[in-house]
Amino acid sequence: MILISDQKDLTNFLNEKPFKSTKLTLVPTMGNLHEGHLKLVEQAGSVSNFVCVSIFVNPLQFGPEEDFSSYPRTLSEDLSKLEKTNCSLVFAPKVDDMTFGIKQQKADPFLSSIMCGKTRHNHFDGVVTIVNRLFELFQPKITFFGEKDYQQLMIIKEFVERKKLKIAVEGVATERELSGLAKSSRNSYLSGEEKKKAALIHKTLINLKQLLLDFNGIDSVIQQAKESLEKNDFNVEYLEARDRYTLKESSDPNNIILLCAATLNKVRLIDNLKL
Ligand code: AMP
Predict the structure, then answer these.
(1) pLDDT confidence of residue 212
(2) Average pLDDT, the chain
(3) Residue 177, domain member (yes or no)
(4) Residues with Cβ within 6 A of ligand 1?
(5) Are residues 168 and 190 in the same domain?
(6) What is the reported pTM?
(7) For a pLDDT cut of 90, what percent of the chain falls above it?
(8) What number is the average pLDDT over the span 30-42?
(9) What pLDDT sits at residue 122?
(10) What's the pLDDT at 251?
(11) Is 275 inside a domain boundary?
């Protein structure tokens, strides 16, 4: 496994002949790797003999009040974990190298204005700006993103389509703790007790799914689910039912995805569940 931390070195390396013809796959991450990230790497390895992972805490996707400076950075542990996978190359650039003179990109206005976009202004523009640069550098055949960040996945798919990039975007199912809590780097901010409580988001989505499948009125069950999370100390930012392909509001049980963002003791957690 090779570690490269500079855009120029990466370009020189990838321009060498043997790599030009490989089926290169790319897994973009912000590091502090857990089993969710490793599942993406594993899936990339199942279709490619040249898996690349980027590790970059992207400042452009954090708001001024968010946790950019405290976000966990654990490069040496991440490298040890990746050594045990079929990852061939890790790209871990410095902030200035990655952002200096970068072409700003825009996420789809509708997809980036709903749900997380309501409170995280410019977040998705920051995501697509860096992801686009990674695509330019790597020119992957396939890239892997987690369904845990479902809105992000839809935004990347739309971006690739709009820019007519020849890259397949694969979504990978959410990896969870035994409790049902979606694995996330931000879970490390939670105490043991809070982690137990945080699993209530997934449980609430499962209950909600069952209620909706039993043909209960959508607005009232969503309202009840929100209230029940709030009684358990969550501050619910949104809990919505949307069409899983367009993210437009929907009450058609066939295509619904339930999506939730809630903070528990200031730690922002997101999760989703398809009906
Ligand atoms: P991050 O490092 O949080 O930016 O995540 C990098 C990639 O890993 C994104 O595509 C995420 O959606 C994905 N990811 C994060 N957590 C999980 C999880 N629990 N299961 C599957 N994929 C995940």
Answers:
(1) 87
(2) 95
(3) no
(4) 29-30, 36-37, 39-40, 145-146, 148-149, 172, 174-175, 182-185
(5) no
(6) 0.94
(7) 90
(8) 98
(9) 94
(10) 76
(11) no
For residue 40, give the ligand 1 atom closest to its CA. Answer: 22
Q: Which of 81, 82, 128, 149 to mutate to test the pocket of ligand 1 (most atoms within 8 A of CB)?
A: 149
6 and 135 part of one domain: yes
Domain that holds residue 193: 185-270
pLDDT at 254: 83
37 among known catalytic residues:
yes
What integer is the mean pLDDT of 258-275? 96
Ligand 1 centre distance from Cα of residue 182 (Å): 10
Contacts of 124 (CB under 8 A, 6+ apart): 61, 107, 111, 112, 116, 117, 151, 152, 155
Establish if 214 belongs to a structural domain.
Answer: yes
**Do you know the residue count of the chain?**
275
Q: What is the CATH number of the domain that holds 200?
A: 3.30.1300.10
Work out whether strand 87-91 and strand 2-4 pair parallel, antiparallel, or are unpaired: parallel
Domain count, the chain: 2
Distance 37 CA to ligand 1 centre (A): 5
